[in-house]
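Moderator note: this is an archived Q&A kept for reference. The question asked for a predicted structure of one protein chain; the sequence and the answer are reproduced below.
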Amino acid sequence: MEELGKFEELIGYSFSNRELLKQALSHSSYANERKNPSGSNERLEFLGDSVLSIVVSDYLYKNLNVAEGELTKMRASLVCEKSLHIFAQQIDLGKYLLLGRGEENTGGRERPSILADAFEAVIAAIYLDGGMEPAARHIMRFMPKDIRHAKKPVFNDFKTVLQEIVQKNPEERVEYVLIGEEGPDHNKSFVVEVCLNDQVIGKGRGKSKKEAEQLAAKEALELMGYEAQ
């Protein structure tokens, strides 16, 4: 509980229900070792992703007078795994994670996908504990001070680029399909195919589903003749 208190000081928010914070910091490997899978942060991550998206969307809409496509690219840049990993490092989130032994021994505290997911879970915990206002205040700590001076997104988001290309033909649709998982829980890799109208146009392998989807979209763009950097 002392460690939870230190983390509360770092993020500038005190929980009424500290069990929410503990769950947000609990990786599935930790929960599984204690035979309590429902105690992991995976469900909170799902909710936190949505809260993050609406707060960032509102921020960009109010501060950038640009077309919808540019807003989408900028949002994708700010909420992608690379950005969330950086944000998590800024509050030393890895130090406070609750990990299983295998994940602990293989560098889980520094793994970008774990940190990004936990960052979203903490957002959800704040939202459930105190509502949208403190959750938004927490998120805004990590946003650029003046987004109007940003020339382009910080990170390329290949999924967004591919989606924009496909949307030019309304009858076409893109779908990402998880086709495989390999390795032990503490060192998994995921394989994803991206399909255009049920035809595979790219495949990606990554340490998280999000990374695999990005790499699948990158391969698809390259096969379609677009420069993906």
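Archived answer notes: The two ends are 44 Å apart (CA to CA).
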